[in-house]
Specification:
alpha+beta, GTP Cyclohydrolase I, domain 2, 8-stranded mixed beta sheet, 2 domains, disordered N terminus, two-stranded antiparallel ribbon
Length: 305
Amino acid sequence: MKISGQKLLKPSNIFLMNESKYLGKVTAYPKKYAPDVLVPVPRQINRSIYGLAEKNLPFTGVDTWHAYELSFLTKRGMPVTGVLKLIYSASSQFLIESKSLKLYLNSFNMEHFGKTPDEGIKDALNIITRDIEAVLHTPVKANIFRSRSEKNFDFDNYEILEDLPGRHYTEFTEFRENPDILKPDTSRATELKAATHLLRSNCKVTFQPDWGSAFIYLKGDTLPDKNELLKYLVSIRNENHFHEEICEMIYKRLWDIFSPEKLMVACIYTRRGGIDICPARASHEGLLPKNLISPNKLTDKLLRQ
C-alpha cells in the first residue's frame, strides 16, 4: 500500500488476535445463546496509518449493518425470521468483528422469545441491543424487519463514473491504493455527486474479496477530476482492510487533497456470510444518507445486494 509521506504502523499482537479470533477459521456455531462470542476491534490502530486522531476526527459518521439470517423461536416453538439493522457511531472506540456477530446472531436460532412473533422480536431486540452496547461501549440503534418492501433510496442524481461517455477507453494500471492518482478538475464546477459500482477491496484477515458501491458528495473550490477519481477508486482493488477502514481511507484522501467545504463518502458493500456493512462518513451530520442511518427504514438494494 502506497501512503505518501506517512510511516506505516505495525498493529499490536492483541489487535491481530481480536481480528482473527474467528475470521479464516473453521468455527462451530453456538447451539445456545452466546453473547461471549462477540469480538470488539479497536478502530484507532488502522486510523493512525492515515493520521486520523481519535479525539479530532475530520468527520462524523455511522456504521450501518444489515443481518439477513436472524431467526429464533416463539415460546410455542414457531420460527421467526427477519432482517436486523444495527447502527452505531463512527466515533466509538470499537467496531464489531463481523464473523463474531454472525456467530452471535446464530446463537439465537433455537432460543425461545415471546408468546407471539411481535413479543419475541421485542425481547430479542432488547437483548441484542444490550449485548452489543456492552461490547462496543457505545449506544446502538437497532430494529428487526419482518417485511422487506424497500422503497427508500439515498443516492438519486449521482453520476455513475464508469458509465460516463468514453470511460471504456480509459487505461487502468494501478490496483493498490494510490492517492497520487487524484488530480483536480479543470472546470469551474464546485459540486460533485459521483458514484461507482466497481468498488472492490479484500478482508484484511482472510483476504476474501468484498464488493460494493461508493458514493461521494463533495463541495468546494477544487473538485477531483472524474476520470482520475474512478482510477483512484479502482486502485483500491487489492487493498486489505475492513469496510469501515476503506470508507475512512477514501474520505481522508479527498479531505487532505481537495480541502472541501463539504464532503460525504458512503460505501455500500454487498453481503457476505449473511451480513452487509455500510459505513458512511461526512463533514456535516446533515450530509449523512438519511435512510441508511435510520433504524426504522430499509433501503432499496444496489447492483450486488
